[in-house]
């Protein structure tokens, strides 16, 4: 599949501009500076002015560290997802939500995939973690217990991860980065924040249909990347920890 840029409507461009401008402002002082720096590095091909062209984005990503964006129709089989990540290929849809869906979607669209996920792939430690995650999935994904554990790891890091900056909490997970409501929730509501522990993450359940109440906070992207090397010793040991209420 390829991105059909000519298919985008005027509403699509308005949606992209509205979401990008609003979220870029909301993230100031809330997203980790490395995310903002990576977003700035991609600024000539990823900005509010126009829907990003994947060919232009891929040129920048490939030049930086060999990553690329692969177009998918939506959610894909988990084994294919793992394989693509292990090959430094990030999956993205090409459709955008409508104006009346700006604040809620049941399925991730291109704004979530690109604005939320892609900038941090410019960071070497984070990119290596995502690649390592994919390799773990390829190696162990045939095991349903491990598959579920890796889903938890993805959820609490790549989607909803927090990171400590000095004495402050900042966000890096794409599910928060791409959502105005989730971003404000972190700083305005009562949430449980746990220090990142890969073993605990693997055994902590989550609920996708509700706003999150508990999160895991890393101290650096290097910590996240280095944890991959210990995960193979922990995968497959299933002791479920119920999500906090």
Name some characteristics of this structure.
single chain; 245 residues; alpha/beta; Phenylalanine Hydroxylase; 4-stranded mixed beta sheet; two-stranded parallel sheet; 11 helices; 6 strands; globular; disordered C terminus; metal-binding; oxidoreductase; ArAA_hydroxylase_sf; Phenylalanine 4-monooxygenase
Please characterize this protein's 3D structure.
The structure is a single chain. The protein contains eleven helices and six strands. It is globular. It has a four-stranded mixed beta sheet. Strands 1-2 form a two-stranded parallel ribbon. β5, α10 and β6 form a beta-alpha-beta unit. The chain has 245 residues and is an alpha/beta fold. Helix content is 48%, strand content 10%. It has one domain (5-231): Phenylalanine Hydroxylase (Orthogonal Bundle), CATH 1.10.800. The protein has helices at 10-26, 33-41, 54-65, 78-86, 110-117, 124-140, 144-159, 174-177, 180-188, 198-202, 221-231, and strands at residues 68-71, 89-92, 162-165, 168-171, 192-195, 214-218. The termini are far apart. α4 (78-86) packs across α6 and α6 packs antiparallel against α7 (144-159). Mean pLDDT is 92; it is low at 238-245. GO terms for molecular function: iron ion binding; phenylalanine 4-monooxygenase activity. Belongs to the biopterin-dependent aromatic amino acid hydroxylase family. Keywords: Iron, Metal-binding, Monooxygenase, Oxidoreductase. Residues 1-245 form the Biopterin-dependent aromatic amino acid hydroxylase family profile domain. It comes from Rhodohalobacter mucosus.
